[in-house]
Amino acid sequence: MPPVAVRILHPLPDPSAGPLVRWVTEGRATLAQRHRRGFEAAGAKDVAVVAGSADGRTFGSRLRELLAIGGAGGIGGLVVLGSGSIPLATTADRRAFIEAAGADDRVALANDRFSADIVAIARADGLPEIPDLPGDNALPRWLSELAGYDVRDLKRRWRLGVDIDGPQDLVLIGAGDEPAGIATDALRTRLAAVREVGHDRHAELLIAGRTSATTLAWLERHTASRTRALVEERGMRAGDPANRRLPSSVLGALLDRDGPESFGDHLARLSDAAIVDSRVLLAHRLGANEVLWPAAEDRFASDLLLPDMIEDPWLRALTASAADAPIPVLLGGHTLVGPGVRLIIGGTWT
Prior knowledge:
This protein folds into two domains: 157 residues, Spore Coat Polysaccharide Biosynthesis Protein SpsA, Chain A, CATH 3.90.550; 182 residues, no CATH class. The chain is built from 14 helices and ten strands. Helix 8 packs across helix 10 and helix 11 runs parallel beside helix 12. It is 40% helix and 16% strand. Strands 2-1-3-5-4-6 form a six-stranded mixed beta sheet, sandwiched between helices. A four-stranded parallel beta sheet has the order 8-7-9-10, with helices on both faces. By secondary structure, it is an alpha/beta fold.
């Protein structure tokens, strides 16, 4: 098998980062070292964590640099992932990526070709010039459509869709205690309450945002409650010229009309518990580009249902309404309404 390099990209926080961002960075750093040991145990000989500041460079630029450092002929295959990626991966999962990167043919393997957090690329030293891809999600499409690769994925392995994007994800996977001064009681109480609703055959559970048919089918099989779904903006990407329509949300339109303070009451009219992708609501209000959204510290505090830690007035009001709602409400991102649902209903977070 040709040589395979594994590169784990670990972004460092800004020196002024708040406690929630630092918590997430520390959680990712711990996972990065676990990945390093795990890929070595799975048979990779060249594994490294590449840490650096978020300096505005594109993912494509970073990937070009990784290949250049390898030198001519120095990298046969490449596995590249973020330090928060696939925290629930097994040795068999890691071995699958190593084997794909070591193939003789022009093949690539992603955890999900439409939402990639890890990509294995065979014959990486023969790639054409890599453009300034905006993020890792764009890599499988470029490999397939322009680089001539046969791109496969492992999206049936739901655990590979979990990603540490915020502190809520650390709680969901049971990755240790919160730092001093940060309370997760509100989140844990709602997690328990949502799970209870999921096991009540007289109740109705709402899931809203970028969820999938696979997740809805799992809910139908593993919950006693009825499921109400609002599936919106699954293809949402910042800066993608193919997105000719601005992000829009039914719940977002209600909040436009009635204000973020009405959020909890609207959800209570629809369900007995709600799991909501708040990033879709932010995109509806501000556009898909995350640069225009409230700061990461605010978003993370919202996910933990801690409105007093949020500076942005709109997001603070939304979060307070969710926290005070007459039903349990969870707010979060793509993981929450995707593979996180399985952790909520049957999970490991306790």
